[in-house]
User: Fold this.
Amino acid sequence: PMIPWGEADFIVVCAPSEVEVVRPFLKAGGLMIPPDFVDEKQLANKRSLNVALLGALSHHLDIPEARWIEAINAALPPHLHEVNAKAFKLGRDTAAARR
Assistant:
């Protein structure tokens, strides 16, 4: 990681085994979004968990939702756009509900 220990404002963790490994990088008052933040059972495609976690992160950053979706769509083939847009919304809605 490029961020020194104790200085990360946000950490998104995609693998359960990495939660404790990256925890020291989080600064006091920082936010960690672990893989169990989103209920995987609600995802149409389990492989879109990373996008759902980005949706949760997006709730905390001042970047328009449309820009996030635009970037996600640019990185994925068209047949995956809809399922990932739904995953993003799930993560974003979950973060809003927990605030």
In short: The two ends are 28 Å apart (CA to CA). The mean pLDDT is 95. Helices lie at 19-22, 49-58, 65-75, 81-98. Residues 54 and 88 are 7 Å apart (CA to CA).
